[in-house]
């Protein structure tokens, strides 16, 4: 039996629980997954919060049911320098909290399901862990197991897809739960280090800035730092002009453009070179070189690579892509999406030919599939040594039905990438021609695809290699030693360009490599263990920065807000904004997973760092933020004060009050500024009603100055 210390009893309704010596409990991460597993193992009798039958009781969490307690639970009820740094020992777990207009309260649904899980575990002899096979999934179970005080043995169901076949195979090959102690240790360290750095840094910042509406995090602040630094570099860039001389040669109906081998820094020098060439000038072809090159097929997708391509090709955000991929996984159509590997092991490779055969007959790939050779597959993505917890993203072979447009898009991208990865390289011929004219050297480069190989799958221009010039230099071909008259020439003024602002795709790439600009795919693979965050968390980091009004989307670009730049300017150069330091922590967490670093040693380094960064912030001469002052629209005399949870009028008796959180949305400073300056926010997307139905609306005031929804007008001028 267990050594329980959790105060729940029975099923919550006072019934006496039985203990079944041979009964096995299975705990999944979500109800949908739990129901699938229950069906496969024969637990077909559905109850409230669990299923039972065939010797099993199957229950489920609802994501994270438990979280680390807030500072108040440890006695840190005031935000004061004397209490910093806060170093709880031990940390406490509490049932999941939800934010309401009255503050944080216990999530009743979470508390109820904890009771159900407790009753299920109490009745069973052993436990099978079926939460997601990754850090967070392990953390979800271990927290429940610890909080409820159980010591019963448990096994691990470790699978990479939710197909019936995968579940049956996994159930027949359960792994010892202790094999994943290091995975839990890494997850636990990650959560506690985020608490220590985030809570202490944010409170220290609140003290020196005089505002509680700012926060700093172990991962979010270095990410913000990258965005702000790039923005400043882009905006302060001074473009330098240069001039490019070119000439055009003709051969029958074809032409070719040659460019001067050097760029001119001065306009006068360029014009002088231009004048040297006349209508009677002859060109001597000095070099004609042809070279066959191979453009290797891309590796299979991990989550980050998928998110980048979805953003580039379909303008999907990282968060949206992850949500869609999770949905496809739960529909048993793809393997586990939160993977950081772009390779598959040899045993998975055995299934690939049959999967590719199914992909090749899909309408999107039927034409390419007619020439696809299943007997000679490219094995570049096959390397078991580069697979960590989960292999690369692949489809399961189940025929997709009833998918939304977005789901179909992402599924097609994953399936297409499989075809690409196992296809032969793209064969190209690179042509380089050089010539002289009036003592000056000119060059023309072009390439032609001989065999498209993998590039025939989608046939996208974006797949162009760096040796394929963007400009159309023409198709005429000449022989070495040939003399050709000049058909035309000219000088074009160009200018140097700044590094572009981050898009979500390029930001994900930068997070993967700690901001290092690495183009080579293999080099990226080698350094990505040093990245900021993990494939599973990077989307959430970007979303958090947007929710906190630190960054915003401007078209496809990601730019800092005034508030984000304010925080960046305050902490840049400090260790809390150090991108590579954060990257080294992510590597350390991987080492904990791999049993090469002691968890306590890592936590001691985090505690030492927390003390250091807290002291750094408290010593900060914080720049004064230019606050916007709004006259109260209700009383016309008071001033509006923006606080972390509310915005209110400072005049006694006025009573104008706006809570930041409305339904599931958090109003940003920008939203509140719009509301109080113009009487309405812009359209805010993604509110959710009581039944969970999403809708878009602006926030405005009614006649009594209570905030109300305002809905967009339909085309006929009437509100929808």
From TrEMBL:
GO MF entries: DNA binding; DNA topoisomerase type I (single strand cut, ATP-independent) activity
Every Topo IA-type catalytic domain range: 180-614
EC number(s) given by UniProt: 5.6.2.1
One term under GO cellular component: cytoplasmic replication fork
Reactions catalysed according to its record: ATP-independent breakage of single-stranded DNA, followed by passage and rejoining
Swiss-Prot/TrEMBL keywords: DNA-binding, Isomerase, Topoisomerase
Source organism of this protein record: Phocaeicola dorei
Region (Disordered): 460-481
Listed name of the protein: DNA topoisomerase
Any one biological process term the GO annotation gives: DNA recombination
Biased composition range(s): Basic and acidic residues: 460-474
Protein family (similarity comment): Belongs to the type IA topoisomerase family.
Domain of life assignment: Bacteria
Uppermost EC category: isomerase
